[in-house]
Amino acid sequence: MFNWLVTRKQIRLLSAELEAHKKLIQQLTKAQQNFYNTIEEGQARSMAVARSVTSLESEISALAKQIKTVSEQDPDSRLYQRAAEMLQAGASIDEVMHSCDLPAAELQLLMNIHKPA
Questions:
Q1: What angle do CA 40, 41, 42 make, to 5 degrees?
Q2: Under 8 Å CB-to-CB from 84, ≥6 apart: which residues?
Q3: How many beta carbons lie within 10 A of that of residue 34, not counting itself?
Q4: Residue 107: count of CB within 10 angstroms of its CB
Q5: Which tens digits make up the pLDDT trace of 58-110?
Q6: Whose C-alpha in 17, 54, 110, 111 is 20 to 30 A from the C-alpha of 2?
Q7: pTM to 2 decimals?
């Protein structure tokens, strides 16, 4: 014969287990929601950093263009740059003086600044 009857003690035990499982499900649901919130917060921060990096890259590019424009507009700086390159390539002070039309004292200073360490 089958015993279809459940005792009160078994019902209480099953009810207690059911309540424990319900509490565990609630805790897991809360932990899962906290995890999702953390992920969303991390994604939002990553997006903000990406926007900042993009903005900074744009600003750097604009500054580089400005620097290039300014250096191209200043003929003296190009002249001194050319003289320094000639000196580094081994040209004599006389050659650079005639080529760049700079005084010997300035060329001597350039040599001192750009000589290898």
A1: 90
A2: 110, 113, 114
A3: 10
A4: 23
A5: 999 999 998 888 767 766 677 888 888 888 888 888 998 888 888 889 888 88
A6: 17
A7: 0.46
